[in-house]
Amino acid sequence: MSAPLLSIVDVKKNYGAVAALDGVSLDVGAGEFFALLGPSGCGKTTLMRCIAGFETPDSGRLTLKGEDLSGVPPYRRPVNMMFQSYALFPHLDVFENVAFGLRRKGESKDVLQARVSELLEMTQLASFGARRINELSGGQRQRVALARALAPRPALLLLDEPLGALDRKLREETQFQLKEIQRKTQTSFVIVTHDQDEALALADRIAVMRAGKVEQIAAPEEIYERPATRFVAGFVGETNFIEGVITRDGAAFFETAFGRLPREGCALPDGARATLSVRPERIGVSRNGAGVAGRVEDFVFRGEYTLLRVRVAPDVALRVGAYEGRFAIGDEVTLAIAPDAGVLFAEAR
Ligand code: ATP
User: Fold this and answer.
1) What is the pLDDT of residues 278-304, one digit of tens each?
2) What's the pTM value of the predicted model, to 2 decimals?
């Protein structure tokens, strides 16, 4: 990879006894769409505020285009931020909202006119220039905020829950627009979200955070298919945790209620307790095949598949994606796991 645009090395930030950032390191590439994902309080906003310059880390280093950012005030950083509340100016029209950053930079009238028009076009607001902010829908406001943030051509745009204020249907449409605009402008985007679907849908790479630390940085597919920790497996996507014991008998096996699953390359010692994370779609369900017996306890229709909750033991219920057949509560079924399915974690529950 070429030199990253933004480089964060071992950044720490405490608020009293709370370690909001506990040694965070990550890089964001030029033109990359990067997501900070994690539960409430994990430090996402604090990290973003450190990048913007609203907050100073206690230790660690941030560099942008190779320049050390310590001591560089927010307005001197080639970074812009789009707030979840949008923070638009209600007394200005759409054009003037988008022009705001350019006027502050002292751009000429021609440059300003051309750049604002270009952005209104890109955000499908070309005919809305003279509108007041309070005459716009939620989705239109969101696009004005995006156009305004992009107008001064920041190298990096920070977006705090950019779709958080929109309803579900609009969110999905807006995801496509956001991705397209990011691609067209080739600006690096760093979005903060606690919504795993949004991060998976939008980002080139995701950093999953927990309690001030980064648990994994990877592309969406990798985060989903090969979660690095049990926390990531449980936080991103739906999964089942199946307990068992490693046995080494020449090769390594994972002994579970589902039988003996071969685990080639497993480094855990004989007798180690471990947990297997298996996605619902990797567990097969049938009415009378071989496998572990269970009873359908509940189901949710999800369009392409039906998500079943199947009780296999008094204290174990699994989520299973049924792509064929119809199931009812109380049905007796059998479940099977492909031998290579899932990811094994050394920790048992
Ligand atoms: P959310 O998704 O709820 O916005 P977050 O992941 O963005 O959460 P942060 O806002 O970065 O989390 O907060 C991380 C931790 O630091 C939390 O425990 C929070 O209470 C604490 N914190 C953040 N800002 C301050 C502050 N100014 N003073 C004291 N504690 C703070």
Assistant:
1) 999 999 999 988 888 999 999 999 989
2) 0.90
Kindly list the distances between the CA atom of residue 7 and the CA atoms of 32, 45, 51, 70, 293, in Å, as whole numbers in the listed order.
13, 17, 10, 13, 51
Q: How far apart are CA 282 and CA 169, in angstroms?
A: 28
Listed by start position, the domains of the chain span 6-227, 240-345
> Which among 164, 162, 166 is positioned nearest to 147, based on CA atoms?
162
Architecture (CATH level 2) of domain 240-345 = Beta Barrel (2.40)
Measure CA 72 to chain center: 28
185: left (phi over 0), alpha (psi -120 to 50) or beta: alpha
Q: Which one of 11, 12, 14, 44 would you pick to mutate in the ligand 1 pocket, going by the greatest count of ligand atoms within 8 A of its CB?
A: 44
Residues in the chain: 349
Note the ipTM here: 0.95
CA pair distance 284, 269, nearest whole angstrom: 29
Q: Give the C-alpha separation, 78 to 51, whole Å.
A: 10
The Cβ of residue 46 has, within 10 Å, a number of other Cβ atoms equal to 20
* Cβ–Cβ < 8 Å for 156, 64: yes
**First-to-last C-alpha distance (Å) of the chain:** 38
Give long-range contacts, CB 8 A cutoff, 24+ apart: 213-218.
213/22, 213/23, 213/24, 214/24, 214/25, 214/26, 217/26
- Alpha carbons 270 and 267: distance in angstroms, whole number: 9
- Cα of 43 from ligand 1 centre, angstroms: 6
- Fold annotation for 6-227: Rossmann fold (3.40.50)
Q: Evaluate whether 43 touches 23 at the Cβ level (below 8 Å).
A: no
Cβ–ligand 1 distance for 38 under 6 Å, the answer: yes
